[in-house]
Amino acid sequence: MQALYNTLYEPGLPLKLTGILVGLWLVASHLFALLKPGLVQPWLKAFPRNEKIGTVLVIIGFAWAYLIWSCMDLGEFFKIERPVQLLIVGVCVGVIVYVKEFLAVRSLGFLMILAAAPMLDSAFLKEPQSRLLLVVFAYAIAVKGMFWVGMPYLMRDQITWVLAKENRYKIGAIAGAAYGLVMAVCAVLWW
Question: pTM of the full predicted structure?
Fold first, then answer.
């Protein structure tokens, strides 16, 4: 567990690796969405209320929070490490049992907030300026994640808006793939 924490946070992921991974993920996911709209569009429509995916994402998110709490240096607060670990597990179970409405959206938003920190750490005080591609993406997913946790119906409305016109869907998929490609190329060449 400590090794995973150290990989993500102490000293963190290398900028080049993070840029390549995020860039390739953006390219792959958006190209798949562009090439397989018949498969992706119905899945997107059903995602906000998908309890099974939401449950899996909640467990991953709370496991990540448990990892952070268990491995970080707590300083004077080391005495409350065990009670907070139990609280994290209890809240995870409580969310799965009692927060059924838009669980997938809320848990995805929580994961997006958690994912932003390692990305920002990898780009902190590094050169060149093109690293800001990663920083902008990290802040965008963190802010969007906060809105999706607090107002999960926004994701449903955003999906509905994108899928309402075929051009919006295509432009979004092409833009996401292009952004990922630019990030991956910058990471390979300059980071």
Answer: 0.86
